[in-house]
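REQUEST
  id: r-88c1
  op: predict_structure
  target: GIPC GH2 domain-containing protein
  payload:
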Amino acid sequence: MIESINGQSLIGCRHYEVAKMLKDLPKGRTFTLKLTEPRKAFDMISQRSAGGKHSGSAQLGTGRGTLRLRAKGPATVEEQQLSPLQPSAFEEKAIEKVDDLLESYMGIRDTELAATMVELGKDKRNPDEFAEALDEQLGDFAFPDEFVFDVWGAIGDAKVGRY
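RESPONSE
  id: r-88c1
  status: 200
  body:
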């Protein structure tokens, strides 16, 4: 786990915040990463207050937002509307498999991101169409080709019932 970049602590930061900091580092310049074992990183994150309530007066959202990183312009958080339709068995299995791939490749668990990827891929005819859709909607993640191909495979397997 990355504990700090150039002395700036990242403890408690979300993965997308760390990714943005890394992306914003000047190309060709030396920088310093301080790494720690994953357990130690999670041990240093403070516990939530009792009952999960926020102690400040700030209003909390629904927790169902999506961070949209843009190549030009600021990042925004878009609140997601809860769908009245439940995901199909195929979608549930595909989301689970894609979430497993996110953890395997990137060390994160993000079912919302996995669901978005499944939604983008479920109607695509080939991995190239899927990769284009990912680049269009989630290009700031810069997913490696191998990961994209594995996600395409997981969606395809779920479609035909291969779990």
